[in-house]
Amino acid sequence: MQTTTGYSVEMVQIVKQFGSVTANDHVDFRAKAGEIHALLGENGAGKSTMMCILSGVYRPTSGEIRIHGEKVRIRSPKDAMKHGVGMVFQNFRLVQTLTATENIVLGESSSFWRGPGWLTKKSEEIEAISKHFGLPFPVDRPIWQLSVGEQQRVEIVKTLYRGADLIILDEPTSVLTPGEVEPLFETLDRMKKEGKTVIMTTHKLKEVMFASDRISVMRKGKMIAAMAKTETSERDLAQLMVGQENFKSRTAVREKIHGSPMLVVKGLDVYAEHGRKVLDRLDFHVSEGEIVGVAGVSGNGQKELAEVLTGLRTWKQGSVRFDGHELRNGSVRAAIELGIAHVPENRMKSGLAGSLGTVDNLLFKTYRSKERSRFGLLRTGSNRTWSQNLVKRYDVRTSGIDAPVQFMSGGNQQKLLLAREIDQDPKLMIAVHPTQGLDVGATAGVHDVLEDLRRKGRSVLLISEDLDEVLQLADRIIVLYNGRIVGNIPREGANRASIGLLMAGSEEDAG
Description:
Elements: E1 9-18, E2 21-31, E3 35-41, H1 47-54, E4 62-67, E5 70-72, H2 77-82, E6 85-88, H3 100-105, H4 118-132, H5 148-161, E7 166-170, H6 178-193, E8 197-201, H7 205-211, E9 214-219, E10 222-228, H8 234-242, E11 261-271, E12 277-287, E13 291-295, H9 302-309, E14 317-322, E15 325-326, H10 332-338, E16 340-343, H11 347-351, H12 358-363, E17 373-374, E18 377-378, H13 380-393, H14 410-422, E19 428-432, H15 440-455, E20 459-463, H16 467-473, E21 476-481, E22 484-490, H17 496-503
Parallel strand pairs: 3-8, 3-9, 6-7, 7-8, 13-20, 13-21, 16-19, 19-20
Antiparallel strand pairs: 1-2, 1-4, 4-5, 9-10, 11-12, 11-14, 14-15, 17-18, 21-22
Helix pairs in contact: 14-15
């Protein structure tokens, strides 16, 4: 539908306050039909809050929303959908035990009990939509049996099935493997060509420059700039996001300070719950003052390797020596006591307890220590002071140390997690996708932390699917494919093309 303004959605002077915190400060945002609009900003900049207001999750404190030039009141996701607005969240909102079809029709007034064959007809209708937009998934399979990429497709089809012509995607590529990103962008392009408005919040500047038509940038709750993609560059966008005064380029030059091997893995065989071998005769080491990157497409053993080294999973054969000691098989406490820190793949699932506050989350690994407790009772006062000092030192922005951490931005959650792990002065940091879903400023902060550990002579095992990150940080790169090491490449000889081939299973004898 065309309007006199030419915009399918206009958000005018939006203010959103959470108590004393102003998340959106008189923000204007506009997007047109038939375009992919990228909304950028640091974690906590207010962009997700804006999209939650547009999709009915939050109500604005003040301001107005116009859809196709008409002023509307959106007080719930149901209201939003009536106006053709649907949102796909970074953390999917699906019932794991229901099938894809059941999730998509869930909440319809017709219910499931419309007689025999009704659900089959719905499955056929949904399958036709998924095929039309290039979003394949098994419609009759339970959600828990689908890959993350397939679950995202279910969420997108759910918005299309319900009639959305304005689709919001929150960090859509943060959960995808490299091979799933391009098909997603092809789908978004198809939506655009059919006149739909696609709004994408993301931190990945390369993807913004590749996929979007227009870009809006937010910083500290305010709209900083809006422009066509052709009017800007990755560097300009990065400066807008973090502020000119805070922007700095990182250099690739570094001093070699490798010491003796800290972690030595030999002949490691690991099996998954279903009996398939996921790690096959792994041999590698990580030295003091060395960052070793582990590259590979998701599902090639990276997750299991991190779990073995942190005591979350047992191994079948082989040995793991750390700091001169044999690592006890399947003991989390032994790994912690030896000095192994862990930043897990999913910070809110495995790293932090979202409903608890900052103090409790910081205490998870140290509550037994004499500094944190006495005679089995926590030292409440000193623990709060300690927590406040850590929050200040690592610039963790929170509305209060008692507020549930689930309400923090992703970047601040990650900084809190790093603060807890680094405060123990670890000898080895195992960092799994440490910057996934983070913006430019937060990513640089995490990289600084890992570089600082290296300079202090600590060891870092960096497991990441972001090749740019691995190439930038690692002194040496191990490539995993089908649970085997197919490449062990020093920093000086590493390049994106050769590592990409190894990740895809080509040239397995290289390195």
